[in-house]
Design brief:
The chain is an alpha+beta fold. It is built from ten helices and ten strands. Strands 3, 4, 5, 6, 7, 8, 9 and 10 form an eight-stranded antiparallel β-sheet that branches. Strand 7 and strand 8 form a beta hairpin. The longest helix has 17 residues. The N and C termini lie far apart (45 Å).
């Protein structure tokens, strides 16, 4: 009887961890350390919780393309090097665990999968939310956040999204014809949607409506692309909104300049999208 019970427990474990998972022993240890580090950081406001959790990653190295591992799509957990998107995903995942009091590895895995993939399910390379405007829209559909760009003065625009399919050589997984076709289909879907952006020359006038913990996505005039960078809004001692982000200059940091001035130095930036975690 005990043997049968153990067997069914084993099957249950396989079901819970059914998605392909890449997580080193080093990152599993880093998860355990992070859980202890954030356990007393829950705030009454979820945005403030995001900031408290996000600041525990300060100094973590910026590393590009951490998800492009192996020959097929897996749920990659990397807590030692992050790009701008994986940084935001990890902060949102850990903050969610904290407020829901689900401080265990299995909950982290399922929460991260829910955030990173279309409708919360890993189903191959094309199921990852590659374009960040779709990342925002799909996570709004999951009720994880709200796109508040329109509320703070944003305007709707239409733009052809095709950067991945027109730069196929930059994405190793797109050498697979099936992946390529599915990414093209995703782009065609996005091209029938409008996105709302707060133009760069309107950000300063509406900065007071941006809150601690809001997810900031930088829009661009680059052909075929919607978003070039993302981070988390934090109001600093100067009273201005700055960007807490995994900077391509080398590490997770808070921008020295306020967001408005920081954006003026980015070539081809056109404005921002603002998403508020719920």
């Amino acid at each position: 009887m005990k043997l049968i019970s153990s067997f069914f427990f084993f099957l249950l474990s396989l079901t819970i961890c059914a998605q392909p998972l890449i997580c080193s022993d080093q990152d599993k240890t880093a998860f355990d350390v992070k859980i202890k580090e954030i356990q007393n950081l829950k705030q009454s406001d979820f945005g403030d919780t995001m900031i408290s959790v996000g600041q525990t990653f300060l100094g973590i190295p910026y590393v590009a393309k951490t998800l492009e591992i192996g020959k097929s799509e897996s749920l990659v957990i990397n807590l030692h090097g992050m790009d701008c998107t994986t940084y935001v995903e990890n902060v949102l995942a850990f903050s969610t665990l904290l407020v829901e009091d689900k401080m265990n590895f299995d909950s982290f895995v399922s929460t991260l999968e829910n955030i990173r993939y279309k409708d919360g399910e890993l189903n191959g390379y094309a199921s990852r939310l590659h374009y960040f405007s779709e990342w925002i829209a799909n996570n709004e559909k999951k009720e994880l956040l709200e796109d508040v760009t329109a509320e703070i003065g944003g305007i709707e625009i239409k733009k052809d999204i095709n950067f991945m399919s027109t730069h196929r050589d930059l994405y190793p997984f797109l050498q697979d014809e099936e992946n390529f076709k599915k990414i093209k289909a995703s782009e065609n879907y996005l091209n029938h949607k409008s996105i709302c952006i707060l133009p760069q020359d309107q950000i300063e006038a509406n900065e007071n409506q941006i809150k601690n913990g809001d997810i900031i996505a930088l829009t661009t005039s680059i052909n075929g692309l919607d978003i070039t960078h993302t981070g988390i809004a934090v109001r600093e001692k100067d009273g201005r909104i700055h960007l807490l982000h995994a900077s391509s200059s080398g590490k997770v940091e808070v921008s020295e300049l306020p967001l408005v001035e920081y954006l003026k130095k980015i070539k081809k930036n056109t404005g921002i999208m603002v998403a508020r975690p719920l």
